[in-house]
Every structure is written in C-alpha cells, then in structure tokens.
Design brief:
The protein is built from 14 helices and twelve strands. 43% of the residues lie in helices and 13% in strands. The structure holds pyridoxal-5'-phosphate (PLP). The site of pyridoxal-5'-phosphate has 15 residues, from helix 3.
Length: 388
C-alpha cells in the first residue's frame, strides 16, 4: 500500500545522516561526558559541538544553550524557572490562549501556586495583538510567554514586536519555537527573546532531546536538581547520542531550510488552493500569509475529523485532527475554539503538515482521495442531510 506521511508537525523521521552521527555514542564512545578521563572527554566534545551548532542556528552564544529532554521540559523549565527566580519581584505572568499544553499547563499550575496568569486572546487567524500584551503588563509582571508558531494552525506570531514591548517593560520574554526551529529562521536577537524552547524530533533529530536558550544574565531557577551538568543549570547525565543528533539535525536544517521551505510552501499553497475547489463548505484555519511553510489546516463542515483520519489511514495517508496531544480526548482543540470555531466545526478539522520527504505526488494522492472520503461521510451524516 502507498504510504503518505503528512503529519510532520507531530514528529519527523530522523534524518539518516543524523542517525549516523548518533551511532558511535552508544558503544564505542559511551563515556559519561562529566568524567575527566578520555572516555568522558570524547563524549563531552560531541556535546560542545552540538551546543555550538545550536547557538549558531539561533545567533546565540554557546554558553546560552542548555540541553533538555525535549520541548516540554524546555517550556516547563522556562515558566517554572522564571516564576520561581522572580517571585520576590512580582507574581504576574502573561501568555496566550493558543499555547501548546507544555506552556499552558505549567501556567495553570502556577496559578494554583498563587501566581496571577493572564491568557491573552487571539484574532480569527490566530494572531496575538502586541498591543494586547502591552495592555496586560503591570508592575507585577515578570514573564511573558508567546509561541513563535502554532502547532495546529501554523500562524506565526509577531514575536519581535512583542519582544520590544517586554524589553521596554523589563519583563522576561519566552517563546516556544518548537514548530519553527529548523523550518524558518529563528534568531534570538531579532526576536528579542530571553528564553526560547526547541525540540529535535520536530526537525529530523531524535525524540527525547531538546534545548532551552537562556539569554546571558537571565535568572531562572533550576527545574531539575541533583547534579552539576550544564554548568549547574540542568542535572542528569547527558543524553550524548541524542544531543549529538540534535546538533547534526540543526546543522542540516541550517543548510537546507531555505530550499525546503520554498518547496513545501509551494505544495502547501497547492493544497490550500485545491481543497476548496474540490470540496464545498470548507474553511481554512490560520493566517493565509503569516503561516508556517508546511502547515495546512481546514475545517470540513458536517463531518468528524476522526472519521476522516481513519478513512485516510486506510489509504495509507497520515494526517492529524489538529494536535497529536488532543487526539485522545473528545474536547475539540482549544486552539480552534480560541479562533472562534463552533464545537461542530472544530471537530471537523484536519491538519496536513509537510516535511523533508514530502513529494508532489503525495499531495496529488491526497487531493484525489480526500473529496471521495468527504462525499462518502457526508452522505451518512445527519448534519449534512439536514442542511437544506
Ligand atoms: C511538539 C511540541 C512541544 C513538545 O515538544 P516535545 O519535545 O514533544 O516534548 C511543545 N510545543 C510545541 C509548539 C510543539 O509543537
């Protein structure tokens, strides 16, 4: 059977070149990077090379990067770390209604601990208005966290403008850049961020490894304690192979990203244009222009996203109803509700996300089969039959 993977926003395959770089650190170069003998030093070198590659991608300094177990840990460390380091200064945190749960759940937990949290709204295309961030800032605000691009609808936020506002106000600014690093340029100085999260498995690296950028001078309390790795900022023995893989993956992305984004954006635009020509009553979610080059998200009225996913899967096509994290719950995505969709329409949404190995024929295969699936499901849908 033909297999078409259109779920790169959930995770990406590991690039074979990345696997090659990782391999020696399991047996031949297995040493603990904190050991001073030569076994340790060989492993330590791999980590420092990866740190330089990561810093280079971000336009940061190597000592501003710490390696973590992934995007979720980076986000949790940024929120809890900044909140606890600055709790004497203030107790107010600002974030948005469309963040990934790795940011919104720590924010909600901080609320339980006594912090005040403002969830800024977004417009219909999922954009945050920097003016709304400005208005929400008080003399008690210590941290603002706004994601760079949304994982479900692909909207890219005006991070640089928001960063100017937070800098002026003397407030720390964190951005979850898990969906952008490796796909579009992410330069910490242009974005005016103090903290930034990334995750290797979203850009052709291995799962279970990520990084947090911490601008020099930014104070955050340690999230993991019990060892002096990462110059005392993150305890636990390094995941040497994973970190080496992250380093290679980000290096490859730096070299290939521009070309890849151009190609993926062309396929994305083909899907965006063709879907409404072939299927009536569909709505594009997310911003038509400020959008990730690899993201397509459509609401298809009168039917359920889950039924469409199952039917697509039978044809070998992998897509998502919005977010892998919500696919086991019956509540529709908080992002789709936040941009104003009704529960019914949100339930009928599909995300297609492209990546390094996407081909034009994949898109054509989808465009051939999706209309048939929609037609079949609509014929069985009481919502659709009751429509006229
Ligand atoms: C995938 C993702 C995360 C979580 O990263 P993990 O490495 O899987 O923990 C966080 N934020 C966004 C926007 C993501 O897409």
């Amino acid at each position: 059977m033909k297999r078409v993977y259109l779920d790169y926003a959930a995770t990406t395959p590991c690039d074979p070149e990345v696997i090659k770089v990782m391999e020696p650190y399991f047996f031949e170069k297995f040493g603990n990077p904190s050991s001073i003998h030569s076994f340790g030093q060989v492993a330590k070198k791999a980590i420092e090379d990866a740190r330089r590659a990561t810093a280079d991608f971000l336009g940061a300094k190597a000592e501003e990067i710490i390696f973590t177990s992934g995007g979720t840990e980076s986000d949790n460390s940024a929120l809890f770390g900044a909140a606890h380091a600055l709790e004497k200064k203030g107790n107010h945190i600002i974030t948005t209604v469309i963040e990934h749960h790795a940011v919104s759940e720590p924010a909600k937990f901080l609320k339980k601990l006594g912090f005040k949290v403002t969830f800024v709204k977004v417009n219909k295309s999922g954009l945050v208005d920097p003016g709304d961030i400005q208005k929400a800032i008080t003399d008690k605000t210590i941290l603002v966290s706004v994601m760079h691009a949304n994982n479900e609808i692909g909207t890219i936020q005006p991070i640089s403008e928001i960063g100017k506002i937070t800098r002026e106000a003397g407030v720390y600014f964190h951005s979850d850049a898990v969906q952008t690093v490796g796909h579009i340029p992410v330069k910490v100085d242009e974005l005016n961020v103090d903290l930034l999260s990334l995750s290797a498995h979203k850009f052709y690296g291995p799962k279970g490894v990520g990084a947090l950028y911490i601008r020099k001078g930014t104070r955050i309390e340690n999230f993991l304690r019990g060892g002096d790795q990462e110059r005392g900022r993150r305890a636990s023995t390094h995941n040497t192979s994973g970190i080496a893989g992250l380093g290679k993956a980000i290096e490859l992305c730096k070299a290939k990203m521009q070309e890849e984004a151009k190609f993926q954006a062309r396929l994305r635009d083909k899907l965006i244009k063709e879907i409404p020509l072939r299927i009536p009553d569909v709505y594009l979610n997310g911003d038509p222009h400020k959008r990730l080059p690899n993201n397509v998200n459509y609401s298809i009225q009168y039917i359920e996203g889950e039924s469409m996913l199952l039917n697509l899967d039978m044809l070998g096509i992998a897509a998502s109803t919005g977010s892998a994290c919500t696919s086991t719950s019956l509540e529709p995505s908080h992002v789709l509700l936040a941009i104003g969709l009704s529960h019914e329409i949100a339930h009928g949404s599909l995300r297609f996300s492209l990546g390094r190995w996407s081909k034009e024929e994949d898109i054509d295969y989808l465009l051939e089969h999706l209309p048939k699936i929609v037609e079949k499901l609509r014929a069985m849908s009481p919502l659709y039959r009751g429509k006229s």
